[in-house]
Amino acid sequence: MKKSMRAFGIGVFLAGAAIAGYDHFFPDQQTADTRALEKQIKKYEQQIDLLNNQLAKQEATDVVATTENEENKTTSASQESTSFVETVKDSSESPESGTDIIEATIYIYENVSIYTIGKQAEDLGIVKNGRELELFLAKPEYSRSIQKGAFDLHSDMTIEEIAKTLTGKKVN
Which residues of 99-117 are buried (b: 16+ CB within 10 A; e: fewer)? Predict the structure, then answer.
């Protein structure tokens, strides 16, 4: 019984070694397919890298063009607001009061910074210190809800009233 078990074990070992040797020295079609697929994957990865580079260049070009367009819009909006301020300023001057109330329209476009809003309000004469408006608008309850659009503001409004107008909240 001992000899037969030993012979059976040696037979199983040799059979396994023969199969492993056959797979090693005579690769089947599956191995060739795997190599072909690996080459194809490398080729696709190179194409993806090339397309990502092209996309990055295109996005950089778009960002520059968008920035230039936004600067042109802001400049034209400031010019429109300035001419509007001049006409309103003339009509709002009253001989009895020593203070002039300046009315102007501020244009807020998508992705405009709080700094730009404060600077525009200061340039139009709506607030004396645009930085103060900027800091007030930086509060979380206002910074997250600034609306796009055109807003009619005047110089006798408080900073809080201006902020509520720009965010669409009700002014008391």
Answer: eeebbbbbbbeeebebebb
